[in-house]
Amino acid sequence: MDVLKKKIAVLAGDGIGPEVCREAIKVLEAVAERFGHQFTFDQQLMGACAIDATDDPLPAQTLRACFEADAVLLGAIGDPKYDNDPSAKVRPEQGLLRLRKSLGLYANIRPVTAYDALLAHSPLKPERISGTDMLIFRELTGGIYFGDKGRTDDGQGAYDHCTYSREEIERIAHRAFQAAETRRRKLTLVDKANVLETSRLWREVVQQIAPQYPEVRVDYLFVDNAAMQVILNPKQFDVILTENMFGDIISDEASVIAGSLGLLPSASVGDQVALFEPIHGSYPQAKGRGIANPIATILSGAMLLEHFGLQEEADAVKAAVQAALDSNILTPELNATSPCSTEQVGNFIAYQVAGGIDCQMYKENIAVGMSTII
Ligand SMILES: NC(=O)C1=CN([C@@H]2O[C@H](COP(=O)(O)OP(=O)(O)OC[C@H]3O[C@@H](n4cnc5c(N)ncnc54)[C@H](O)[C@@H]3O)[C@@H](O)[C@H]2O)C=CC1
Ligand SMILES: CC(C)CC(=O)C(=O)O
Ligand SMILES: [Mg+2]
């Protein structure tokens, strides 16, 4: 087989970003070794670390590297020094939003799975969440996050405008319908059409597109009800389609079904280079402590492999993650009694991908302090 050569731009970012990216890269390197591919990783600055180095959260060099890459792997950005300073004019999140816009990443796809091995870790009743398998299509380059924002002239008020064009809705709606066709053929549009004009446009466009996908059953939920239904009866959902802010909120909420925010990956796609990132943020409280769960980023790596058309390789990563879950090789938020570190979880998954390892032996190695066996 020909050697597949791919260049991956890595924007590790802030907080736990570099720690979780390190483990995802380790796993992708194990994939390359086992399957005979060549992946090169081009590390670039974005977020608070980029502001520190260049005064710009998305330096031109970083953007150029993304355009020159076959895919982008992102950790997370954000730092409390900006979160706690509402007057800061330059902010890490501006880099992320500008990146999404510049790369045209209009569809953010967030799978939510209830793993049998973790059912007991969710605060939700196992029988309610068992078997959950939903795919959230979050619009990523429009809506209120990108509208005009500012303070009123008297300085006593503020505004954030929410706008959507028909075209912005159509392009992600088609992707969501196409995904639903390959799954359980149900699409739920989450909006606030009883109040918001933008939501009424979303309904109008989805109703117009729906006849092109006759096998897909469409239903509509207001976002407040959806927020409740997602945890009350998550199994009712197949594909959820929604706008930017609602998707941001609903997907963090849905991570409670999986058991941890540190488990949910995502793919952001558009017409150019695609980007893969965990749905969580920079979790600054965990920075440098080795407690961050790397699985969301590792699974984002699996989505990256699928994007390259490497299904067998992606399946190998998912199987290795499953082995970690089944063997309780997990970070402290999911395993309080015998927790593993970020690095140990990454090592185990990479080792599994590279050729397998006996789980019991690995646990014994961890117990005697051999944290780096790969
Ligand atoms: N895509 C991105 O880069 C995002 C960046 N942010 C930024 O991240 C910073 C922190 O924001 P927060 O609201 O605290 O959200 P966050 O997602 O960083 O953390 C929220 C909570 O989720 C849990 N968590 C998150 N990641 C985890 C992991 N890998 N393993 C285990 N538990 C994990 C922790 O309990 C944490 O307290 C802010 O500066 C924010 O702007 C927030 C969301 C997304
Ligand atoms: C800057 C935010 C929009 C990041 C975030 O919360 C996300 O993408 O999920
Ligand atoms: Mg979010």
Q: Over the alpha carbons, how many angstroms does the gyration radius reach?
A: 21 Å
In whole angstroms, how far apart are the ends? Answer: 26 Å
The CATH topology of the largest domain corresponds to: Isopropylmalate Dehydrogenase
Q: Would you identify the CATH H-level superfamily of the largest domain? A: Isopropylmalate Dehydrogenase
Write up this protein.
The chain is α/β, with parallel strands linked by helices and 374 residues long. The protein has two domains: 1-103 and 272-374, Isopropylmalate Dehydrogenase, CATH 3.40.718.10; 107-269, Isopropylmalate Dehydrogenase, CATH 3.40.718. The chain is 43% helix and 17% strand. The chain contains 14 helices and twelve strands. It has helices spanning 17-35, 48-54, 60-68, 80-83, 92-102, 126-129, 166-181, 197-209, 223-232, 244-258, 295-307, 311-326, 342-354, 359-367; strands at 5-13, 38-43, 71-76, 107-113, 133-139, 149-151, 158-160, 186-191, 217-222, 239-242, 267-269, 274-276. The strands form two sheets. A ten-stranded mixed beta sheet has the order 2-1-3-12-11-4-5-10-8-9, sandwiched between helices. Strands 6-7 form a two-stranded antiparallel sheet. Helix 1 (17-35) crosses helix 11, helix 1 packs parallel to helix 13 and helix 9 (223-232) packs parallel to helix 10. The longest helix has 19 residues, at 17-35. It is globular, with a radius of gyration of 21 Å. The chain starts with a strand and ends in a 7-residue tail after the last helix. Mean pLDDT is 95; it is low at 369-374. Bound molecules: 1,4-dihydronicotinamide adenine dinucleotide (NAI), 2-OXO-4-methylpentanoic acid and magnesium ion (MG).
